Amino acid sequence: MKMTSLRQAALLVLALGAAAGAAAQETTLRLVSAFAENGIYVQRLQPWIQKFNAEGKGVLQINFIGGPKAMPPFEAGNAVKTGVVDMAMSTGAFYTNVMPEADFLKLTQIPVAEQRRNGAFDAINKVWNEKANMQYLARMVENQPFHIYTNKKVDKPDLSGQKIRITPVYRDFFQALNATVITTAPGEVYTALERGVVDGYGWPIGGIFDLKWEEKTKFRIDPGFYDAEVSLVMNLPAYNKLSKAQHDYLHKQLLALEAENSFWARYTAEEVARQQKAGIETIKFDPATSKAFVDKAYQVGWASAEKQSPDIAKRFKPLFAPK
Ligand code: 173
Ligand code: 173
């Protein structure tokens, strides 16, 4: 009798130990999106998460918690910094409340694959690690320039008398174009347009149909400027806790995600056609004015970065531009 219970106890300890061992091998990462659940960025993310979980059984899993309904979009950065969640899909402009440098990523003019080769990616991570307690994991959107969408026609790059919805991405440039600017999350743009609180908004070339803004949009100003940055970021302690196998698996999947970025050039062509079909007129300038417009965007963007954080802006600038 005694022997049997001892034996049972020993078996129980062994079984518990094995269960704990298995649990330690698989980690589940909680991920939030700062962008809408039904929008193009989450649409791109979902199949990746499915594949990640299918191939990562016993190693690493991702639990998608949700988008702005689960967490206000401008809070996602802080949630990653503090470890409330492990990962976020967000953009730097949404976590300037963590560090102003986050918004500098809109100024890259080379593909993320090149950023990994030329040292930009490492330079970004040094700052993200030190200032935001984050690992910058992967850029999943590129080749998506921002545009001005407005209901008030212009014949030159001047937004005098216009109220434009912004995030930090656009603030200095649109103010330099004489706009009155109003910051809102994407989720508030439709109502702001409907009520005439704003005449227009900044947004990338793709995605305006996701929240039905085409219903309230008359004109798109060309050309675009900067490059919309949407990336995965991770709480640094959570990242550092991963085993070598987990780290290698994550890295492999992140590179696979970035390898899908050729999608965005196709998407641009589709969205331009769709906007035209929806009756959105294009406002274009002559070539010299167009060039001056884009040059001004970068000049204002870098001047603002250099004022905000001179050392980091100086470090990033040569790494963000083509050789
Ligand atoms: O504090 C904030 O929420 C903030 O600075 C912010 C960030 C992104 C867009 C708008 C405001
Ligand atoms: O909300 C925005 O206009 C914005 O800052 C942004 C950034 C990246 C992708 C899409 C929108």
UniProtKB/TrEMBL annotation:
Keyword set, alphabetical order: Signal
Leader peptide range in chain numbering: 1-24
Cross-referenced Gene3D superfamilies: Bacterial extracellular solute-binding protein, family 7
CDD domains for the chain: PBP2_TRAP_DctP1 (cd13667)
One Pfam family recorded for the sequence: DctP
Any GO BP: transmembrane transport
Highest rank taxon of the organism: Bacteria
InterPro entries linked: DctP_fam (IPR018389), TRAP_DctP_sf (IPR038404)
PANTHER family: EXTRACYTOPLASMIC SOLUTE RECEPTOR PROTEIN (PTHR33376:SF5), PTHR33376
NCBIfam families named in the record: TRAP_S1 (NF037995)
Name of this protein: C4-dicarboxylate ABC transporter substrate-binding protein
Organism: Ramlibacter pinisoli
